[in-house]
Automatic annotation (TrEMBL):
It comes from Amycolatopsis deserti. The keyword Amino-acid biosynthesis does not apply. This is Membrane protein insertase YidC. Interacts with the Sec translocase complex via SecD. Specifically interacts with transmembrane segments of nascent integral membrane proteins during membrane integration. CDD domains: 5TM_YidC_Alb3 (cd20070). Residues 280-296 have a biased composition (Low complexity). Residues 32-258 form the Membrane insertase YidC/Oxa/ALB C-terminal domain. Required for the insertion and/or proper folding and/or complex formation of integral membrane proteins into the membrane. Involved in integration of membrane proteins that insert both dependently and independently of the Sec translocase complex, as well as at least some lipoproteins. Aids folding of multispanning membrane proteins.
Length: 365
């Protein structure tokens, strides 16, 4: 029924088993564990681009989270209108809500496929004959996996082989616990660290935190790691190794991608600031032709007002003298003379000059 999942998973596992089989031997448990680990890395490498899109989509959603809250508050009694407005806002910002769930959804088929492929190694045919194949693995590959042991424990065994998960020979196998429990604890710790790192990233924007977000953070930080401890007893050693490798990859990928995106945002902000500074006029720069600076224009207006004589013959800020012979008829130092006083000074000067010239002429005669 799900062969379209089982065959690709089996093929990737078969390829990596061949690669490490040349180094450590085809029947070595290390070969099988490394093949499982690199199967995980291969799948996560394929999903790297969707993961980056997921992070960017979540970042955009955090930026316009206040607008979403306004829509929720405005249309609290109209769910249909609220959903339509939220979809419109997400479309304007180019955000797809399903994009943040895509990497997780893609991992589920891989987990199911690997679980079945690993368990199928030890499933015997109904007639009791030896198992001769397991998708891409032939009979030699099946026997190699079945007899591979890690610290004396077969990597296909679980603490409890549940028949509903494809296990054979149901019941508790406590001899598997010394190997399985440390892997379960380590996988649980990595699950918690991965969820906490993601939650810290989301908490950088308090406005984007909603009650639903807080609830999901608690589930991923505490309930999911606890679930690994509980349900890990039903997973074979090989599947626990897959879970451990998957969580380790996720934690390192988050740190690298978040750091890269933060650097890109910082660079964009620096470029925007540099662009604003380049467009702004520099201090002391000359204005463009036909334009005057605001301060210079005000100064010119002030000088023009000072240059204009008073209509009533009064200087600005100086009261005229009531007497013609008053010593205050002359302006103070730095002030311009009044029109009336200037004319009065010119007349005597011209008269004296003419009289002087006339007198000198008479003396020559």
């Amino acid at each position: 029924m799900l062969d379209f999942i089982y065959y690709p998973v089996s093929f990737i596992l078969w390829c990596w088993h061949k690669v490490f089989g040349f180094v450590f031997g085809a029947d070595n448990a290390i070969t099988w564990l490394l093949a499982i680990i690199f199967l995980t890395f291969t799948v996560r490498g394929i999903m790297f681009k969707p993961f980056v899109n997921q992070v960017r989509s979540m970042k955009k959603m955090q930026e316009f989270a206040p607008e979403l809250k306004k829509i929720q508050k405005k249309y609290a009694n109209d769910r249909q209108r609220q959903a339509a407005e939220m979809q419109k806002l997400q479309k304007e910002h180019g955000v797809n809500p399903l994009g943040s769930c895509l990497p997780m959804l893609l991992q589920i088929p891989v987990f199911i496929g690997l679980n079945w492929v690993l368990r199928a190694f030890s499933i015997q045919p109904a007639d009791g004959s030896p198992k001769t194949e397991n998708y891409f693995f032939d009979q030699a590959g099946v026997e190699s996996y079945v007899h591979a042991k890690l610290f004396g424990v077969n990597i296909g065994d679980a603490i409890h082989n549940a028949s509903m998960l494809g296990g054979q020979g149901g019941g508790w196998h406590w001899h598997v616990a010394p190997v399985a429990i440390p892997l379960m604890i380590l996988a649980s710790v990595l699950t918690h660290l991965t969820a906490r790192h993601s939650a810290q990233r989301q908490n950088l924007n308090p406005e984007a935190i909603t009650p639903q977000t807080q609830m999901m953070q608690r589930l991923t930080m505490y309930i999911f790691p606890l679930g690994v401890l509980v349900f890990g007893a039903f997973f074979p050693i090989g599947l626990l190794v897959y879970w451990l490798a998957n969580n380790g990859w996720t934690l390192m990928q988050q740190r690298l991608v978040y750091t890269r995106i933060d650097k890109e945002e910082a660079q964009k902000k620096a470029e925007a600031a540099e662009k604003r500074n380049s467009l702004a006029p520099r201090p002391g720069a000359k204005p463009k032709p036909g334009q005057k600076p605001v301060q210079q224009k005000k100064a010119d207006d002030g000088d023009g007002a000072a240059d204009k004589p008073a209509a009533d013959g009064k200087a600005s800020g100086q009261k005229p003298s009531s007497k013609a012979g008053s010593p205050h008829r002359f302006p103070q130092q730095g002030q311009r003379p009044q029109n009336g006083s200037a004319q009065k000074r010119k007349k005597p000067a011209q008269g004296g000059k003419n009289s002087g010239q006339k007198g000198s002429g008479q003396k020559r005669r």
